[in-house]
Amino acid sequence: MKTPVLEIKNFHVDYGLGDEAVQAVRDVTLTLHRGEVLGLAGESGSGKSTLAYGVTRLLPPPGVISGGSVVYHPPSGDPYDVMALTDTELRKFRWAETSIVFQGAMNSLNPVHKVSTQMLDVIKAHEPQLTPQARIARAQEMLKLVGISADRMDAYPHQLSGGMRQRVMIGMALVLEPQVVIMDEPTTALDVVMQRQILAQLVELRERLGFSVLFITHDLSLLVEFSDRIAIMYGGRIVEEARSADLYKDSLHPYSEGLLKSFPALRGARRELAGIPGSPPDLRGMPSGCSFHPRCPQAFDRCSAEIPVLGIPSARNDPNRSVACWLPGRTA
Amino acid sequence: MKFLLQRLAFYVFTAWAALTINFFIPRLIPGDPVTSLINKFQGQMSTDAINSLYVLFGLDKNASIGSQYVDYWGQVFHGDLGLSFTFFPTPVSEILRQSLPWTIALVGITTFASFMIGTSLGVLAGWRRGSIMDGLLPVTTFLSSIPYFWLGLLAITLLAGPDSFFPSSGGYEPGLVPSWNAEFIGSAVQHSLLPAITILISSVSGWILTMRNMMVTVASEDYITVAHAKGLPERRVMVSYAARNALLPNVSGFALSLGFIVGGTLLVEIVFSYPGIGYNLFQAVGAKDYPLMQGVFLVITLSVLVANLLADVAYLLLDPRTRKEG
């Protein structure tokens, strides 16, 4: 049986306060299980990165978490709500339990400090009892795991290539052996060859170290191949969630279908590529009902009137799937 | 290392150019120092005395401009900058030797203090923006817009006077002999307080503003978010990640302001009749004292060059990106 490690429940994030507030993430419920890779896909502006920042309480102002909880299950001990942690507890929780690899591979490292300084200070902050030699040994070992030789410890970020920098960031994210690693488009700035290498390495490391990954990207093809489950986000809500293979073969939401049709399959018969007409919704003036209905080719009356609820699709009877759509056989 | 040598060569060249200009300017000015000195003595001088004065000033009419130029360099390297008119026959180097410590002590220390205080406040204001610290900004903008001489005169009018703790002019009590004893140092400190405070008030706000703005810019960088995500203590993120990077432009500003210590003290020293380099320059201009002016300009030029060199070195140390490999 799968055990949860991070449970996001009814999570809401707003930008701004009061009536002017823009709701970037609405009522998101998502569970990350131990040892799995959960992909989170969606167009730009669908709220995926905001969700990641919100879950780790790193939202820059004017972002506000307006509701929901994030329950973390440590390997031993009772689960607790990350949203309720005090500043000191939060500081201890960060990186040791949940680390993040950010979008900007190039800017995630401080240009004036050596790689070693930036790796060692996080070990020092979380495990002050370690001797300096032990810290260095740990950092070197981690760099070796991500394919960076130990002598690069003394390099400055500008002396490393983009791929190396992102490897260093991944190594840094794993150095405290956290349970959860959130990756926010970690490979977008890299070319496809480097992307593939880094992801392959990540899969290998996950098998060795046993962490869970919340992988955020707009590249659905990447997720289909690489993740165990996929959640599709649109207009701040999760619209479909399923195992990768199920989603790829048998997507239920018209939006997922549209995303899948917009990239070529690597294997199998050639098929027509089709984009999704229209553009992502304006978060300040969301359409009524299902926010996808203005772009949906299968929309009907009910779609513009009521917001569909995420639930097990009635036609599949599979507890591992859920979808939010009014089409027959979907939301019950 | 190679970079540093290149810079050094550049500064040596600049120094040479500045000294050469310093040599030619007085010779291009209509009239010469000796004539003005003769005028000062109302013609009560023999021809022999006049000729020896010309030689003394390095303006020997019989020597070619080339040999004068060579002699000039020899004199500069011996620290011989000629004789002052105003304080005739005191050598210029002696006057500078006496006034330079006053300027460096007063303006040097206050510039440094102003930089430290302003930068620290700017770091805090930038880091906790939206807090009470933001109330500091209108005040600093207001203070930085006050012309310095007005602030100085206002301070003298309001605070200094015969019965006041703050003396209105001079570097020390007139009756005292400069020496390293408690009484003299106490008096010197007392005399320097008012000019120091006014310099501090008018210059600190500039540091606060630039540092705050840099902090705000740096605080939105990705690596700051990463530092937060790493769970580092707030202080470490602020000092080692944000302030460390935001400091870079301020450091070069600081080095430049060090160079202007000597030249920029004119107003302070005039307003407070402080016995420093700036006051010397003021007196020299008033008395058409060319050798003294030349000496002061030389000191200003060299200090600007040295400060620039320091800025280069500081930048090399602080920003690894400026270091070139090999």
TrEMBL record, chain A:
Molecular function GO labels: ATP binding; ATP hydrolysis activity
Biological process (GO), any one: peptide transport
Pfam families named among the record's database cross-references: ABC_tran, oligo_HPY
ABC transporter domain: residues covered: 6-260
Alphabetically ordered keywords of this record: ATP-binding, Nucleotide-binding, Transport
Top-level division of the source organism's lineage: Bacteria
Transport keyword on record: yes
PANTHER family associated with the record: MALTOSE ABC TRANSPORTER, ATP-BINDING PROTEIN, OLIGOPEPTIDE/DIPEPTIDE ABC TRANSPORTER, ATPASE SUBUNIT
UniProt record similarity statement: Belongs to the ABC transporter superfamily.
Name the record gives this protein: ABC transporter ATP-binding protein
Protein's organism: Kribbella soli
From TrEMBL, chain B:
Pfam hit, one: BPD_transp_1
Domain ABC transmembrane type-1: 100-311
Signal peptide span: none
Domain of life: Bacteria
Compartments (UniProt record): Cell membrane; Membrane
Lineage, top ranks: Bacteria, Bacillati, Actinomycetota, Actinomycetes, Propionibacteriales
Recorded family membership: Belongs to the binding-protein-dependent transport system permease family.
Transmembrane segments: 9-29, 102-124, 136-160, 188-209, 254-275, 295-318
Keywords, comma-separated and alphabetical: Membrane, Transmembrane, Transmembrane helix, Transport
SUPFAM superfamilies attached to this UniProt entry: MetI-like
GO CC annotation terms, alphabetical: plasma membrane
Organism annotation: Kribbella soli
Designated name of the protein: ABC transporter permease
